[in-house]
Specification:
The chain is of the alpha/beta class and about 240 residues long. Helix content is about 20%, strand content about 25%. It is globular. This is Glucose-methanol-choline oxidoreductase N-terminal domain-containing protein.
């Protein structure tokens, strides 16, 4: 069953099971929501262009026509998101309407920030990258061979070996002095002890986020609407 989207973004679609996979960046299919036609048909409509939404859209577009909706703008609209130097200014500027970071308080009372921009929180965070504990996937019955191939897919676009400078050395040495052992060196694996994890900032300090994964999308099958507000979601059974 295909779905239609109108200017007011009233969505009709079947349930979507979200699975994260990956790719690289291409903005030729990214438009402001006001630039979309009055009516269009899609096989899948994904609400939220964040850390999971971008790779999911890229994956589905290999076989289906996909619309990805993001309430924020493109990362290129915010200079502070481009490099690691902009990390602190970004998360400290959490105004209610325009900033790419939105402040919130977690259930245990901790103040934090989440992304309000294409790429989601992967576009505003500190850039530390590590794989999850294998038990997380094994408990859910996932195919670990497929999980590992998917990791490699993601890492080829967004994960880099960081430079170990004075601050990183101090943190590493402090953890080892506190007997957080063994020392595992550089690795993306989830291991007990101290390690040097990967970074989503490359050697020049440029940020890479889930937006980069959209480059794996089939351009003829995907459209991305930024500054898009979803007013209502109507779920109907698949006929």
């Amino acid at each position: 069953m295909r779905q239609r989207i109108r200017r007011r973004l009233v969505l009709v679609h079947p349930f979507i099971f979200l699975v994260s996979f990956a790719g690289r960046q291409n903005k030729r299919f990214v438009f402001n929501a006001t630039e979309f036609p009055e009516e269009e048909e899609y096989d899948y409509i994904i609400v939220g262009g964040g850390t999971a939404g971008c790779p999911l859209a890229a994956t589905l577009s290999e076989e289906y026509r996909v619309l990805l909706l993001e309430r924020g703008g493109q990362p290129s609209e915010y200079r502070s998101l481009a490099t690691q130097d902009g990390f602190l200014p970004t998360i400290m500027n959490v105004d209610a309407y325009r900033s790419p970071a939105q402040g919130f308080t977690s259930e245990d009372g901790v103040r934090n920030a989440r992304g309000r921009v294409l790429g989601g929180s992967s576009a505003i965070n500190a850039g530390f990258y590590s794989r999850a504990h294998p038990g997380f996937f094994e408990k859910g019955g996932w195919d670990m061979a497929l999980v590992n191939r998917s990791y490699e897919w993601v890492e080829s676009a967004v994960a880099f070996k960081p430079s170990v400078r004075t601050w990183q050395q101090a943190v590493r040495d402090g953890l080892l002095a506190a007997n957080i052992t063994p020392y595992n060196g550089y690795t993306v694996e989830h291991l007990v002890g101290t390690k040097i994890g990967a970074s989503t900032f490359d050697g020049r300090g440029r940020r890479h986020s889930s937006v980069n994964l959209l480059a794996y999308a089939r351009r003829t099958n995907i459209r991305v609407a930024v500054h898009a507000t979803v007013e209502k979601i109507l779920l109907s059974p698949v006929s």
